[in-house]
Amino acid sequence: MTELSRIRNFSIIAHIDHGKSTLADRFIQVCGGLTDREMAEQVLDSMDLERERGITIKAQSVTLNYKARDGIEYKLNFIDTPGHVDFSYEVSRSLFACEGALLVVDAGQGVEAQSVANCYTAIEQGLEVVPVLNKMDLPQAEPERVAQEIEDIIGIEASDAVRCSAKSGLGVEDVLEDLIRRIPPPQGEENAPLQALIIDSWFDNYLGVVSLVRVRQGVLRKGDKIQIKSTGKAWNADKVGIFSPKPTETGELGTGEVGFVVAGIKDIHGAPVGDTIVSNKHAAETAAVPGFKKVKPQVYAGLFPVSADDYDDFRDALEKLTLNDASLFYEPENSDALGFGFRCGFLGMLHMEIIQERLEREYDIDLITTAPTVIYEVVTRTGEVISVDNPSRLPDVGSIEEMREPIVEASILVPQEHLGNVIALCEEKRGVQSNMLFLANQVQLTYELPMAEVVLDFFDRIKSASRGFASLDYHFKRFQPANLVRLDVLINAERVDALALIVHRDQAHHKGRALIEKMKELIPRQMFDIAIQAAIGTHVVARVTVKALRKNVTAKCYGGDVSRKKKLLQKQKEGKKRMKQLGNVEVPQEAFLAVLKVDS
Ligand SMILES: Nc1nc2c(ncn2[C@@H]2O[C@H](COP(=O)(O)OP(=O)(O)OP(=O)(O)O)[C@@H](O)[C@H]2O)c(=O)[nH]1
Where does GTP bind (predicted)? Predict the structure, then answer.
């Protein structure tokens, strides 16, 4: 067991692309955790998809042995955190297991809103935040300006922040030295009964559920009878160890340490993130570690297999995905237009795209996704409050007393020269400004905005309005009464349930018109005219027609070249894969998501 004074538990707070993963890889290299050959690019981003998109999704940890300049060997537990705003709850749960955090800032860019929000969380949780200026090898690095910005915006001393380059390796050991000096060691009673916090749980095909834990007090040993506090179920700790970064069994985890435990649990709901593991013998007298907030999905959409034959495979795939992703929600949904599918809940649009891509790539299921929506609250005339995550399930207008939409508080950091554009965008999105602070070169804006306006494309819009310089962080604040209506889309006079949207009444006409114009571009011409209408109740607000066209793909083939003809027909068939037949009209997947393309 390692003496507490030689342990440091830390996270890295960084904005996307500021170099967190590169720096973590450098740490692993400096501490000799892997041979060069094993040091494949960016070891910590383990999922294929993460690697392709270059973003970190799942929290991971690594234990490193670092021989410091004072001659002492320290055990450094690094708990990785994702960078995207959709996954910010994972940051707060990783911070729970640490005494400190490195704030890595790109010295050529400066502080970004999300890092600010995460730093505040860290400081609130009593963590020591240690600033690091990265990318010092770049000619545009301006360490003095950025250090000043850290002091002004976050309010921590940064003039002496270590300057490094994760890419070249310059200053990386200085970062480790600074970390050891400034981040306090963990505290806790070695002889007390076991109390360990579950930071993360995931499903492994061979081992069952693996949980990443932080021991608060006592010792977790292989063979111990343990209990999961919230379920009251007892298990046997079959495997106990650390990630170095390869999983390595050590047989025990002492107070203050971070590592994994495998206890024969078959379902991640049996070892929920944020739960506490205690010794079975002392379960009654050991309290749970005060956990962190549970996350709820923010964005809902219907997912339907293109081919009804895929339904069972689709359900199995969702079941498997939730084994590793407790934040993914699903329940069966039946649409008149699209048949049997599932209503799924996601943390945000990125999460939705990732799940959709995994379903298609890893499980080979072609899907139609309906327009994403947030959750609305509806108060009925009888005084009942119901949550609506599906526009087509909105109760009859006559029975609605009030509708409420979710409001977020958004914090935006933007350089002064782009302030006007960003404010204009917030106004367009029905935002209400609650604060504006001029800090160093940046302005910190606080807005209350309807969540529906924020989750879809706000992030991309704000980036383009500021030439990539503005950054955004937001969280749910409350539900607020709003004048909302359901906008229906009719194709050849048939209402298509899967295309319904909930929109603000003031925007209904404009949105309806823009939406069907977009759909007109996306629905290919067919052998007959197709009328597309947008309607509120029985009132049609806009109408377009997709003109008939006889599309004969083989017309171009002269002579009797059969193989060429076959090839063309095959090509056309593949092109059809993601089409859905609505009545006699073929509608492509893109048309169901047309609303996402309306604003841009
Ligand atoms: N020039 C230079 N480039 C760097 C440095 N550190 C990282 N980069 C580059 O910056 C890009 C982003 O680095 P990552 O380490 O993937 O960033 P990240 O913060 O982990 O991003 P997420 O995983 O998405 O949170 C990569 O192309 C790196 O090669 C540095 O010190 N200098």
Answer: 17-22, 134-137
Q: Is the pLDDT of residue 51 over 50?
A: no
CATH topology of domain 4-182: Rossmann fold (3.40.50)
Instruction: Work out which ligand 1 atom sits closest to the CA atom of 22.
Output: 15
Please tell us whether the domain made up of 486-597 is placed in CATH 3.30.70.2570: yes
Please say whether the structural domain 195-279 has been given the CATH code 2.40.30.10.
yes
For residue 27, the CA-to-ligand 1 centroid distance in Å is: 14
Q: Domain 299-370 in CATH: superfamily?
A: Elongation Factor G (Translational Gtpase), domain 3 (3.30.70.870)
pLDDT in tens, 18-35: 998 889 889 988 887 665
21 in contact with ligand 1, CB cutoff 6 A: yes
Convert the pLDDT of each residue in 350-362 to its tens digit. 889 889 988 988 8
User: What is the strand order of the sheet 247-249 is part of?
Assistant: 233-236, 225-228, 276-279, 195-204, 208-217, 258-262, 239-243, 247-249
Fold assignment, 376-482: Alpha-Beta Plaits (3.30.70)
Integer angstrom CA distances of residue 492 from 290, 519, 521:
56, 13, 16
Is 396 assigned to a binding site?
Answer: no
Q: Is 335 annotated as a binding residue?
A: no
Q: Give me the residue spans of the domains in the chain.
A: 4-182, 195-279, 299-370, 376-482, 486-597
CB contact at 8 A, 77 and 63: yes
Query: Which of 58, 167, 172 has most ligand 1 atoms within 8 Å of its beta carbon, as the pocket-test mutant?
Result: 167
Would the annotation count 22 as a binding residue?
yes
Best-predicted range by mean pLDDT (132-141, 258-267, 299-308): 132-141
- Given a cut of 70, whether residue 90 has pLDDT beyond it is no
112 conformational bin, left if phi > 0, alpha if psi -120 to 50, beta if neither: beta
Ligand 1 near 167 CB (within 6 A):
yes
Separation CA 299–CA 544 (nearest Å): 29
**Which pLDDT value is given to residue 600?**
45
Q: Is the CB of 377 under 6 A from ligand 1?
A: no
